[in-house]
UniProtKB/TrEMBL annotation:
This is Cytochrome c oxidase subunit 5B, mitochondrial. One of its GO terms (cellular component) is mitochondrial envelope. GO terms for biological process: mitochondrial electron transport, cytochrome c to oxygen. Zn(2+) binds at C123, C125, C144, C146. Pfam families: COX5B (PF01215). It comes from Drosophila albomicans (Fruit fly). Keywords: Metal-binding, Zinc. The gene is LOC127565296. GO terms for molecular function: metal ion binding.
């Protein structure tokens, strides 16, 4: 039977005789093989009886519904951020680029905006790779280890 199958696979258009020889021998084994090779339609085209009955697929109609929009589900700060993005502000938190420090003197410190009364600030001192972190609070300017001064400025909440 394997010689018949190899002949069937090699031939571009199998003959009726070859198909009938394949269907007469070992119908149970051949049916599984034909199903794997996808040749059931080929058998029907040559008038041979289908070895394996095709099973119908039952489906139920499903209403196609759109997914819910993010704006309908969003609340709080996330909703405000989405509204700002729709208005054209792609960086509402001002995190796209780091702040450049100013003069940094005691009478002219670098201004850091914050909605809260305190903020964590990192200073890159003398071309260090790792920043020096410090907690900056509302009030008088605070000095970094390198001598640079920072002051907290009250910003409007988003």
């Amino acid at each position: 039977m394997s010689s018949f199958i190899s002949r069937l696979l090699k031939s571009s258009l199998p003959t009726k005789r070859l198909v009938s020889q394949l269907t007469q021998r070992g119908e149970h084994k051949l049916g599984g093989l034909m199903r794997q090779l996808g040749l059931q339609k080929l058998l029907g085209a040559f008038g041979a009886k289908a070895v394996v009955a095709q099973r119908g697929i039952g489906t139920t109609p499903v209403a196609k519904k759109q997914l819910t929009d993010d704006m309908e589900l969003a609340t709080g700060i996330f909703k405000r951020e989405l509204q700002l993005r729709q208005a054209g502000c792609n960086d509402p938190w001002a995190m796209a680029k780091p702040m450049k420090r100013g003069a940094g003197r005691e009478n002219d410190p670098t201004v850091v905006p914050s909605v809260f009364d305190g903020r964590m600030v990192g200073c890159l001192c003398h071309d260090d790779r790792a920043p020096k972190w410090m907690w900056l609070e509302k009030g008088a300017p605070k000095r970094c280890e390198c001598g640079h001064y920072y002051v907290l400025k009250k910003a409007e909440p988003i």
